[in-house]
Every structure is written in C-alpha cells, then in structure tokens.
Amino acid sequence: MATLTLAAVQAASVWLDRAATVDKACALIEEAGRAGADLVGFPENFIPGHPNWYYYHPATTPHSMRLATRLFKESVEVPGPEVAALARAAARASVHVVMGLTERAPGSTGTLYNTQLLIDSRGRVAGKHQKLLPTVGERLVHGCGGRETQVPFETELGPVSALACGENSNPLAVAAIAAAHPLVHVASWPNHFVPGGSGMPAASMLASRNVAYMTKSFVICSAGINDDAMIADCAATEADERFLRDSSGTGGTCIIDPQAQVIAGPMPGDREGILYAEVDTDACIRARMLHDVAGHYNRSDVYRLTVDNRPAPLIDRLTGPERPVDAGPVETPSAQEPRSGRPRVDGAAVLVRTSE
C-alpha cells in the first residue's frame, strides 16, 4: 500500500480527428506526469470523439452516415501507431494511463468498440476493457465488448478497474470489479447525455460515488465536454444548439474516496484541465474493514456471480485430417435382417422406424 497521486482529465476531443486528439492526449499525459501523477484517467471515447450525433439525427440520413464513416476511419487500432505514441508519452511521463478511445479490429471494415486502454508507466499496453453493451445511439456503431476484456487490470500500483459510462450503474459489473479489490477505479464518461435526460455532472457523480462506496475504492470520474466543431455537426435545431452550449449539462469531472466523498472537483462544464488528488490507499483497507462486499460482508453460499471471460470468436474454424480416416471394412447388411433392425449403409448406422 502507498500514497498515490491520481489525475482526472476533463477535455474535449479534437472532433473526429484521430491524429490531433492523440497529440492532445499526449500533451495531457505529459502534463500529468510533470505534476507527479501516478495514474491519469481520460473521458469515454476521447479519441476521436463520442458518436452522440444520433441524439439529433436519424441513423440512416446521409449526414449520420457521413459522420459514422468518418468515425470509423478515425478510430484506433490496438496495437497501432497511435497506441505507440500514447505509450511513448506514458513512458516519458512515468505515469499509468487509462485512455478512452474508439477501437477497431485491425484489418476490419465495419465494427467498432468502446474501449478503455491501460498503458503502464513503462509504456506497455497492460490491458483493455471494452464496454460490454453499448448505450442508446452507440449501438449503431459499437459492437458488444469481448468477454475476455471484462477483467480489472493488474498494475505495479495495485489492482485498477475501469468501466465506461452506464456500466458504472450496472450492479453486476460493479460486483465483478469489487471482487478484485481495486485500489483505484476509472469511470469514463462522454461529453453529454441525451437532451431531456440527466445532466452529465449529476448522473456521473451519482454513479461514481456509488461505485466508490460499493467497491471501497478511489474513483477517477473523468468526463468530456462539448466544443464548437462537435456542436456544429450534432445540432439539428436551434434548441439543440442551446442545449449543447449550456455548460451545466456537460463536464463534472471529479475524484472520489472510498467513503464516497468528493475530494477533488467537480470541474465546471466550460473548463478543460486536470484534477489531482494525493491519496492514502490505506483508506481502502479501513473502508473494507467495515463493508467488504467481496469478502466478509457477503455470503457466497447465498449470492454468487458467475463471470465468463472466455473469448468467443465469431468464427471457430474446425480442420480435419487431409485424408479420410480408414473406418475398416464396410459391413454389408444381410438379406434376412429384419425390418426393425439397424442395417449399415456405407458403413454408417441408420435408424429404421416401422409401424410394427
């Protein structure tokens, strides 16, 4: 156990521009490193931006399809040159990074994933979490996360977990990460929610404080904010633009302790920056001595969660020998064999049904 400095980024993506957003992310990583951060969390889909135009434009319009195509082209392959650039920045800054990004499988053309990528302080990709189920409009461009990615990260800082947006309010997902006893959890959020719903600051803080209290972990709650380029592409009406320019519905980045108390932030929705908190990880022990829901404050003989982390590929190719296996001599059925018997035809047993 140790004292750690946690950092939470609040910033806007360089809208649907992968290269520019990676450059911005690297600068923020190095800024966090200069401030002495051990772990820095970024917003959901920070690279290259979140697909929230579906709140305002029907999915099949030419405008939506242009943006979806652009999102795919600007998404990130893991591994790939953008990940390498982030890794170099993490190594230079000597800081662990949980980066929100839109991932595409190398060589694919059509499916994306909502991913949180962990890069350690030596510049190594230590793991990734893909959002298990996309939310609302995300389902039009994001696939379901792989089962094998639904695991916390092991780091030299101790266990670190991560969930994206609405996953932080899924009690079973929270139970699964609680079982790993993380010291820090990164809750990544987009720049805003659907108009008419809960505002980002209130909803993200509610869910993140709940995760902190249930897991007895420190929580980095990192949210994006709106910018002019995103607003220009997303707003379909003047009312949409007024909503998107209202800073009370965006941002709200904060850091929370294991007793669910906010110890840094929340950051106003009209501001970019990094929040810091120096934390004593012994606070996780003290909190769990009271309520360890993954241990003494539960009954596994009564409540038990099964998590299947085995990979489930779309195609499972089964290959056999190059030549058929010799099954031995073929038995020829006897002419006197009764109708109700099981004659063999070409060496295979055939069940004959009769009315007798």
Overview of the structural elements:
The chain is α/β, with parallel strands linked by helices and 356 residues long. It has one domain (3-290): Carbon-nitrogen hydrolase (Nitrilase/N-carbamoyl-D-aminoacid amidohydrolase, 4-Layer Sandwich). It is built from eight helices and 15 strands. α1 packs parallel to α3. The longest helix is centred in the N-terminal third of the chain and has 17 residues, at 18-34. The protein is globular, with a radius of gyration of 26 Å.
Q: Helical percent range?
A: 25-40%
Shape: globular
Low-confidence stretches: 338-356
**Strand composition percent:** 15-25%
Structural class based on helices, strands and sheet pairing: alpha/beta
Largest sheet: 7 strands, mixed
**Annotated CATH homologous superfamily:** Carbon-nitrogen hydrolase
User: What's the total count of β strands?
Assistant: 15
Count of the domains: 1
Under CATH, the topology can be stated as Nitrilase/N-carbamoyl-D-aminoacid amidohydrolase
From the 3D coordinates, which CATH architecture would you assign?
Answer: 4-Layer Sandwich
Computed over alpha carbons, the radius of gyration is: 26 Å
Mean pLDDT: 90
CATH class: Alpha Beta
